[in-house]
Amino acid sequence: MRVSKMNEDRLVEVRRKKYLNELLDFYLYGDCLDEDMAEEYFDSIKENIISEMYSKNSYSRKCVLTEMTVEGFANTLRRSVFNKRVANSEAAMLRAVQNARKCAEQAKYQRDTKKRIVKNGSTHLELDVGNFCTKAQFRQSFANQKFELQDDVSATAPTTMLNEYLKAFDDDGWLISTTDKDGYKDIQAGKVKP
After folding, report:
1. Nearest one of 136, 164, 160 to 149, comparing CA atoms
2. Beta strand pairing status for 117-118 and 110-111?
3. pLDDT for 2-46, tens place per residue?
4. What is the pTM of this model?
5. Would you give the distance in Å from CA 53 to the centre of its chain?
6. Of 105, 132, 119, 138, which Cα lies nearest the Cα of 186?
């Protein structure tokens, strides 16, 4: 136990030095980049440092959008995307949603005893728990959500984040899994529990 704790502490220290070195390099050579690229690079360094600072919660920060209900998605945006640490940059907000989308795309479909895929909340959009919906219905219901945004965040940011996240779903509301590609082929072939 003691050795693994020491190794973990050493790994954290190595990572911190890496990010400090990246910040130093950015300070020394940042002028060589065009303004947009410099801003994006600096945002990525910041995000890595924040992830490291909150490493105990890094899995939950990256995989926060596994709940596919409208309310769950909106609450996750409020809590994890439009917060003070992330909302200082539209690029950082978009990256947070892209990370969550990639995490959701890792889900595998649940099957019944006859090998048919079963709808559930981790692989299908829902208006609320158990009330499955299409992508259009999800989008329409999401339009009713209210957000308190910081002054520098555009009013269209929630819709932009929604559109980015919904890239992971087909029009019928099914998650397009990147790890269970055969399962998605079965969905397209209609091998789904009614």
Report:
1. 160
2. antiparallel
3. 445 455 566 556 666 776 777 777 777 767 777 767 776 776 676
4. 0.64
5. 19
6. 119
